[in-house]
Design brief:
Length: about 140
Amino acid sequence: MIKSSNGDTPFSLTYGTEAVIPAEIGMPTLRTAEVDMVQNDESLEINLDLLEERREQAAIREAISKAKMEKYYNSKVRSTSFKPGDLMYRRNDASRAKEVGKLGPKWEGPYEVTEALGKGAYKLRDRDGKQLTRT
């Protein structure tokens, strides 16, 4: 069974019980041979009554898991920001100014930051004072 980060299978969160595969139905196993139908129906009703609570617990576990992954990711990321007047290089594949092939330079520049637009977007100009488009 494939389980997600919340510890339950999608089938069990939908229907309140684990699935029985067709191979288990045709071949007698302990799970299918000793089934009391009356008790089975009662336990299925109880599982359906408690299904919302299981879904809420699974959502809480999934949120905790996502927060843990986010914390790990954010601990490894270095944030950089540039102020107007700073010099920076720009990736060559971002501008597609010229096709240089795999042996060409990966970075082009230096460019001067003229304005910080936010979220890593900047207005740049080259050393000649010409404003760059799409930066």
